[in-house]
Amino acid sequence: MAPVDLTNVVNFLAALGVRSVWDVLRTVLDISLVAYIIYKLFSLIRGTRAVPLINGVITLVVALQVAEALRLYTIQFILENVFIAASVALPIIFQPELRRALEHLGRGRLLKTSLRLDEVGDEARTRMIDQVVRAAEILGRNKTGALIVIERETGLNEYIDSGIKLDALVSAELLVNLFVEKTPLHDGAAIIRNNRVAAAACWLPLAEATPLSHELGTRHRAAVGITEQSDCVVVVVSEETGVISVAFQRELTRNLDEKSLREMLIKLMERSKRPGPVRGLFNWGASS
């Protein structure tokens, strides 16, 4: 083996601006800090509506590069103007995430590390569905109004933050007790994430773009409203009639019995496990 020419190594490092051990340490520290900040920023937006938006931006960037390579000048012109408009719109769209990041920074939480189990097995998912169905049946029989949101791919952090954090295992008894009238947590929605009740008494947006019957109250409008903002599944129990409904993708399916509710939830939650067209780009799940 030929001996290493230290002169060439020194010249190479000098060309990179590295003239001492401190320069090496400073470079390593600089790169490490940038990597950590990027990681924390991804952690903050993970589990929010920003994830599919970023997937969309990445798709546009790839499309622009392809258009430039193939010299599709009309497509390139359109995409470039889309990016100009997006530069103004993105700060508005990401306003909740930006506010949340600044709040974390002000509270000193940006440097904290949290671990979360994101994957939920089929057995745990089935058990969760059984508990939700049993709770809905009891609530409907007693004509107790309820709003149960099951998170899928789009994160619901901003709505979870509006309620009372629980992080409790899903059980029919817990869900029934949450919605008992005149108890502290009965007003609002319970949100389920990864087979656990993440929070209760959460505020949801009312439906804006979806026309609904005038006989439906605020609870049903909130159920449809949250499905306008995300891909979650919402189980609603009417306080007046005890009728059980499911809201999904801006549609409200009413008059469900125990069997049909279980079948519908299994079908919708099974669909959430299938990879979408852009999940491979940033498959961050729905946690934060």
Radius of gyration: 25 Å
Stretches where pLDDT is under 50 for at least 5 consecutive residues are 113-119, 274-288
Q: What number is the mean pLDDT?
A: 80
Number of continuous helical runs: 10
Shape type: elongated
Element string (H = helix, E = strand) = HHHHHHEHEHEEHEEEH
Strand content: 5-15%
CATH topology (level 3) name of the largest domain: YojJ-like (1
Helix content: 40-55%
Measured distance between first and last alpha carbons: 52 Å
| SS-based class | alpha+beta
Number of discrete domains: 2
CATH-derived architecture of the largest domain = 3-Layer(aba) Sandwich
Largest sheet: 7 strands, mixed
What is the secondary structure topology, with strand pairs?
Blueprint: H1 6-15, H2 21-45, H3 50-70, H4 73-93, H5 95-106, H6 122-141, E1 146-150, H7 157-160, E2 164-169, H8 172-178, E3 189-193, E4 196-202, H9 218-229, E5 233-237, E6 244-248, E7 251-253, H10 258-271
Parallel strand pairs: 1-3
Antiparallel strand pairs: 1-5, 2-4, 3-4, 5-6, 6-7
